[in-house]
Amino acid sequence: MSERLPTSPAFWRSPLRGPRLTSLLGVVLLAGITVLFVTGLVSYAAYNPNLSPVNDKTPDKGLLGFYLFAWPTDPPWLYRLNQGVHVTLGVALIPILLAKLWSVVPKLFELPPARSLGHALERLSLLVLVASALFEFVTGVLNVQLDYVFPGSFYPLHFYGAWVFFAAFVAHTALKTPTVLRNIRRARGDEKEKEKGELVSPRPDQPSVSRRGALGLVGGSSLFLLVTTVGQNFDGPLRRTALLAPHGGSDPGSGPGGFQINKTAAAVGIRAGETSDEAWRLVVEGRHRAVRLSRADLDQLPLYSAALPIACVEGWSTGDQWWRGVRLRDLAELAGYEQAPDLFVESLQRRGAFRRAALRDNQVSDPRSLLALYVNGEPLTPDHGYPARIIVPAAPGVLNTKWVARLTFGDL
Ligand SMILES: Nc1nc2c(c(=O)[nH]1)N[C@H]1C(S)=C(S)[C@@H](COP(=O)(O)O)O[C@H]1N2
Ligand SMILES: [Mo]
């Protein structure tokens, strides 16, 4: 067979390829991707997707939603940690994934395409595995970097993709575990012996980098991505180390409102006229009762403080901010409920995503859940949701609706 065709093993000349390298990268991915899968499912559960159609962007999830549960409000940093790990680890695993795919690329061209039915099925499952892995990483990175290029459809794409990927991943792991164990044991035994087996080039080039050097390069790239991403979860100077993290919207500046802004008031078409104290009214509605409150009316109600972070699905979060406002459960009482029910929140915002959200009764009854009027001792800035915004402990940022116009209490 011609050595000039990729279907010939002799076409592949890198002396780095071999079962040891592939097995080692495989073990790292096995651990890392398992964490990505679990934190991903947890992140989805955090939206309380079973609560209301406005939270759920994934119709017909059916059985795949079997594990969903009422998202807790404690500890308050729960979503911040979960999503920070999901996004930071996902970014840091990119070089490992690419190195792993590079290490096995000769097998993609192997002939004959199938030696048996079993072999055909294995190769097919590998195609699904590789395609869905690339799909998950690409959609994840695009969502974080490009600010929802697929509006509304990111959740179903990433969610279904994750399940397809995980099924192929489990099959692949089960099939390959014996090989991996053998290779790693052998690698430990006779480091010096010449490597044999699949993936080893039959006519290798002179090495231009040692295997250890190559692993260092991959590990180093991964570490570089890690340290230039993780800073977006911290305040102060650490945040400026997040060179690769998009800082969506404008520079939040300094002062009480000087923490990251997801969408500015201008970006979503909130006009200063409609948030003025003369114009703005909050409608609080229950089963039998509806009240309209001005900001001055709200200021007359008992106000409480809570130190809570904002943690976005995109993997950035702020440290604790001091919010001050009216307890959601007090507003539920105003609407005629002794026991806090679920809550449907609507913003002044007329277009775009995230202007409506549903909260579960356990979130509404938590004494730290506020309709915030102040942050860090000053009235909310326009970009953080003036005149009033929701803030709930441990909830994903997207449930913390800004520029609130209407609260409807009741079972959802
Ligand atoms: N009305 C409205 N509320 C919103 C959003 C929005 O676009 N519109 N973005 C949400 C998202 S995704 C996040 S992460 C938080 C960010 O709050 P911040 O901009 O004050 O940091 O606001 C949430 N509330
Ligand atoms: Mo967000």
Describe the structure.
Residues 186-211 are annotated as: Disordered. It comes from Streptomyces scabichelini. The chain is α+β, with helices and mostly antiparallel strands. It has helices spanning 19-45, 78-92, 94-108, 117-146, 154-189, 211-227, 272-275, 295-300, 328-334, 361-365, and strands spanning 282-285, 290-293, 304-308, 321-327, 343-347, 356-359, 370-375, 378-379, 389-391, 404-409. The strands form 2 sheets. The chain has a 5-stranded mixed β-sheet with strand order 2-1-10-5-6. Helix 1 (19-45) packs antiparallel against helix 5, helix 2 packs antiparallel against helix 6 (211-227) and helix 3 crosses helix 6. It is elongated and about 80 Å long. The N and C termini lie far apart (66 Å). The model has no long low-confidence stretch (mean pLDDT 92). Bound molecules: ligand MTE and molybdenum atom. The ligand Nc1nc2c(c(=O)[nH]1)N[C@H]1C(S)=C(S)[C@@H](COP(=O)(O)O)O[C@H]1N2 is lined by residues 260-263, 268, 310, 312, 347, 349, 354-355, 384, 397-398, 400-403.
